Amino acid sequence: MLFGLFLTLGVLVLSIALRSFQTSFSQKAGALGILIASYLAIYFITDRWILGLAAALSWLFLPWLEILTRIRALRLPKEKRLRPKTPPSSEIFPTLNEITREIESEGFVHVNDAGWDWEDYRQFFRLFYKEEDRAQATICLNEQHDLSFYYLRISSRAKGGTIWTTWNYPLSYGLKLTPQFRINRQRPDQSFWQLYHSHREFLRKNSVEVDTIDALDDDRIQLEMENDLRDQIAHNIRKGVLKQTDGGDVKYSWRGMIYLWCQFLLDLVRL
């Protein structure tokens, strides 16, 4: 019994230590270690391997608690119109000014602040543009209930309609992207400097030259964002991820909730 206890604790401590590192290998090894520790704990308590396996696999179904409660009740507007928005307070987003300075140091110009609110769901966008590269950068803050997170995004809109995008979105993305998006996903801990240079390399590998990218002005940047949001909602309705409610809003379908769960499993593998 003591051997089982010490072995389980050893695997658990090692797994937590591995998860503290930012490399892809250590993150994956740490996640696998937590599953093994769960298996060992129940196995040594019950002396039944099938119960240990069930305990390990239960981690994979944990997201269904949130999906069947918060996500199932979520309603979103079919049309998302961005409006000028006051920046969040330093208590909500303490690093906003620091990230802004970092983006501006790379030659981007602050265009405006915009966002939208819907019931208890809020989004804030700080928009930037670099005329030399014809690149748009955005600081995105999402808030809902007691959950808030931010991510950075850099986009280059080709004249043919393709949107080359680099971002460090930290969670499973909850909707299908429209076909014109090409995503270069990076780790959440990367700085804007790292994202920007990764984006330039992303364009170079795909032979995207500056003269093939559409130039944008301040008004069009916000207009294109609104079009992207509207097209994404329509695309997910067509794919069955979302469905319209009687009140004209949209919500996740059962297919959409299964899609969310699959996104979680993919992120677990990608970590």
Fill in the keyword field for this structure.
7-stranded mixed beta sheet; 271 residues; 9 strands; single chain; two-stranded antiparallel ribbon
Largest sheet: 7 strands, mixed
User: For this entry, what is the oligomeric state of its chains?
Assistant: single chain
Strand order of the largest sheet: 1-2-3-4-5-6-7
Tell how many strands the DSSP assignment holds. Answer: 9
Instruction: Give the terminus-to-terminus CA distance.
Output: 33 Å
What structural class do the secondary elements suggest? alpha+beta
Uncertain parts: none
Give the C-alpha Rg.
22 Å
Count of separate DSSP helical elements: 8
Q: What does this protein structure show overall?
A:
It is globular, with a radius of gyration of 22 Å. By secondary structure, the protein is α+β, with helices and mostly antiparallel strands. Helix 1 packs antiparallel against helix 2. The two termini are 33 Å apart. The protein folds into two domains: 2-61, no CATH class; 83-255, no CATH class. The strands form two sheets. It has a seven-stranded mixed sheet with strand order 1-2-3-4-5-6-7, sandwiched between helices. A two-stranded antiparallel sheet has the order 8-9. Helix content is 46%, strand content 22%. It is built from eight helices and nine strands.
